[in-house]
Amino acid sequence: MTTTSGHPGIGKNHQHQALDADAGDELRGMVKLRSVKKIYPNGSCGLLDVNLEVKRGDFIFVTGPSGSGKSTLLKLLYGEERPTDGEVIVDNCNVGQLRGHKLSLLRRRIGVVFQDYKLIPRRTVTENISFVLWAQGFTHKEIERRLVPTLKLVGLQHKASCFPEELSGGEQQRVSLARAIVGTPPLLLADEPTGNLDPDNSASVLKILQKLNNFGATVIVTTHDERLLRMANKTVVQLRDGQLFQG
Ligand SMILES: Nc1ncnc2c1ncn2[C@@H]1O[C@H](COP(=O)(O)OP(=O)(O)O)[C@@H](O)[C@H]1O
Ligand SMILES: [Mg+2]
């Protein structure tokens, strides 16, 4: 597949242009965690002294048992939680220090997918996907331009006017993927995206994530699905009790 046919905007060429403009190794990192600690207000430990570096264009899995800190790690990356200590750098921004408009601007550059899809029930597939773009002030024409290739990429052109309750779990997860990527974010985070899916649907979600990665997006996926890890054959880091183990 060529880089221009699949998805508007996410493409190797696109990424290379950005890299050429950004000289220096530091700028090539997409995510950097330096001695990150997260203790929740009730005293629960989310993460303990975590160091992690993810380069632009990487695809990594974060695995570990329930309660080990996987969701906490992703929440720190998209600024839903702030670190108690240490630095969380995403796309050269210190996320823990961003507030208000600056945080919203960074979030536009991060697509997020959840295990439970989080679709708006009384809105069609098209509305669910275009809502984000509309909220960001995209023109009607630009929304149209992005919508069709995104629907095609997730294989849901024929379901564009359906409501979430008319879709299977696998289809709902593909809508949520479409919503996460329609704004062509350079970073895609997926929190146990196949947690509620059967093997076939998990495989198709993985294929879409891999395609986006081939187009240039950096992808971070949490999972404890061993089958998915074997199928994907990507870098895996492990969390245990808030501590990260690499390799
Ligand atoms: N909002 C919160 N308030 C208090 N404790 C939390 C909160 N979110 C997560 N935790 C705690 O942080 C630890 C890590 O949770 P989490 O990141 O959700 O793990 P995982 O996603 O791997 O299941 C757990 O002990 C959990 O109870
Ligand atoms: Mg979790």
Automatic annotation (TrEMBL):
<dbReference type="InterPro" id="IPR027417">
    <property type="entry name" value="P-loop_NTPase"/>
</dbReference>
<comment type="function">
    <text>Part of the ABC transporter FtsEX involved in cellular division.</text>
</comment>
<comment type="subunit">
    <text>Homodimer. Forms a membrane-associated complex with FtsX.</text>
</comment>
<keyword id="KW-0547">Nucleotide-binding</keyword>
<feature type="region of interest" description="Disordered">
    <location>
        <begin position="1"/>
        <end position="21"/>
    </location>
</feature>
<keyword id="KW-0131">Cell cycle</keyword>
<feature type="domain" description="ABC transporter">
    <location>
        <begin position="31"/>
        <end position="247"/>
    </location>
</feature>
<keyword id="KW-1003">Cell membrane</keyword>
<dbReference type="InterPro" id="IPR003593">
    <property type="entry name" value="AAA+_ATPase"/>
</dbReference>
<dbReference type="InterPro" id="IPR015854">
    <property type="entry name" value="ABC_transpr_LolD-like"/>
</dbReference>
<dbReference type="Pfam" id="PF00005">
    <property type="entry name" value="ABC_tran"/>
</dbReference>
<dbReference type="InterPro" id="IPR005286">
    <property type="entry name" value="Cell_div_FtsE"/>
</dbReference>
<dbReference type="InterPro" id="IPR003439">
    <property type="entry name" value="ABC_transporter-like_ATP-bd"/>
</dbReference>
<dbReference type="GO" id="GO:0051301">
    <property type="term" value="P:cell division"/>
</dbReference>
<keyword id="KW-0472">Membrane</keyword>
<keyword id="KW-0067">ATP-binding</keyword>
<dbReference type="InterPro" id="IPR017871">
    <property type="entry name" value="ABC_transporter-like_CS"/>
</dbReference>
<comment type="similarity">
    <text>Belongs to the ABC transporter superfamily.</text>
</comment>
<keyword id="KW-0132">Cell division</keyword>
<dbReference type="GO" id="GO:0005524">
    <property type="term" value="F:ATP binding"/>
</dbReference>
<protein>
    <recommendedName>
        <fullName>Cell division ATP-binding protein FtsE</fullName>
    </recommendedName>
</protein>
